[in-house]
């Protein structure tokens, strides 16, 4: 194991064991290196790596701290990776959405509150058939985000935030080139919400699968 990787594993072990928790300050570099049996250079490189993925926060003049370790903060690294994706990998992101979002819709059907249903109803009625493609895609992002929020699972929300952004351009292409895309999207949103509102998890799962697969199928034909 490379020395830097060893240092990362040892710091991770201190966190997973509970020795270091969210917001805790790491011991001074020299003390921590000696304690872990590492060179200061290896430790320094490990801290840099863990800072990049938002596990540690280096505050110059103050010290190095464990971050809050909340899911949204940690998954910023995923969002960064998604931003770098190439257009030829967008189908892979749709595949991930098709694996995840039907389950999210089913879970939302069991947990959604009346207030969240009302919010989603407002979103589905916010656009008409003459809406622009940009307005449709923005509304679609809010719709899927609201369903994720209805699960009460912040990890799900953070994951889908990153993945959905990667498919945004493809949805714009579809809206521009495919006749009836706006009307079809609005109808599918309404069907998904109808199933969620009556707490029919399996119907919500089926409608969400069809919704995601429709764009994915179009993209495969257009590629």
UniProtKB/TrEMBL annotation:
CDD domains: WHTH_GntR. Transmembrane segments: none annotated. Residues 1-69 form the HTH gntR-type domain. The keyword Transcription applies. It holds the Pfam family GntR. It comes from the Bacteria. The keyword Cell membrane does not apply. Keywords: DNA-binding, Transcription, Transcription regulation. This is GntR family transcriptional regulator. It comes from Kribbella pratensis. The lineage of its organism: Bacteria, Bacillati, Actinomycetota, Actinomycetes, Propionibacteriales.
């Amino acid at each position: 194991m490379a020395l830097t990787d060893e240092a990362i594993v040892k710091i991770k072990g201190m966190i997973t064991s509970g020795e270091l928790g969210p917001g805790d300050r790491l011991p001074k570099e020299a003390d921590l290196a000696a304690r872990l049996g590492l060179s200061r250079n290896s430790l320094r490189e490990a801290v840099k790596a863990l800072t990049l993925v938002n596990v540690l926060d280096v505050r110059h003049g103050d010290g190095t701290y464990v971050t809050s370790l909340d899911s949204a903060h940690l998954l910023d690294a995923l969002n960064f990776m998604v931003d770098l994706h190439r257009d030829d990998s967008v189908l892979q992101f749709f595949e991930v959405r098709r694996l995840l979002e039907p389950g999210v819709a089913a879970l939302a059907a069991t947990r959604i509150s009346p207030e969240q249903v009302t919010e989603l109803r407002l979103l589905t009625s916010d656009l008409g058939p003459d809406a622009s493609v940009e307005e449709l895609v923005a509304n679609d992002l809010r719709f899927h985000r609201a369903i994720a929020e209805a699960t009460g699972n912040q990890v799900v929300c953070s994951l889908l935030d990153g993945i959905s952004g990667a498919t945004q351009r493809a949805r714009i292409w579809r809206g521009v080139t495919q006749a009836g895309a706006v009307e079809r999207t609005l109808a599918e949103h309404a069907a998904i919400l109808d199933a969620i509102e009556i707490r029919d998890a399996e119907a919500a799962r089926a409608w969400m699968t069809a919704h995601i697969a429709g764009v994915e199928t179009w993209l495969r034909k257009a590629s």
